[in-house]
Design a protein that fits this description.
This protein is mainly alpha-helical. 68% of the residues lie in helices and 0% in strands.
């Protein structure tokens, strides 16, 4: 595990980090798709 994640784990923040990371990645993908005229569908 990287130094940041080790620190976050010791601070009991690792779950919050993973939630933030997932939301940030999803937002970046949506923005990229919009900028490149790619229709993004949700398969949940």
């Amino acid at each position: 595990m990287g130094r940041f994640k080790d620190w976050a784990d010791r601070q009991h923040l690792l779950t919050a980090w993973y939630v933030f990371e997932k939301k940030s990645t999803e937002a970046a993908i949506k923005t990229w798709c919009q900028e490149n005229n790619i229709a993004l569908t949700d398969h949940n």
